[in-house]
Amino acid sequence: MKLTIDLSGINCRADLHMILKSHLDLPDYYGRNLDALHDCLTETSGKIDLLLLNENEVSDEMRSYVRSFKKMLADVSSEKKSISAEWR
Q: Most exposed: 2, 15, 26, 59, by fewest CB within 10 Å?
């Protein structure tokens, strides 16, 4: 699965997690936070290629969260080679 997310249109954490849940078909018990996302991604059996655009255009409120999101995705990618994340 390939998923492109334009971060410039995301203004809060809830919006980001809503997009991830719907596009990655995450389970109903997904906790809509980075720890839960890490767990769901490392438990998945499929290949996931994420392309994240415009990280520098997020709101001030989201800037710190996007840095944490980026680190979590790097951790997941190093743990599970079938998951990749590219930032542009």
A: 2
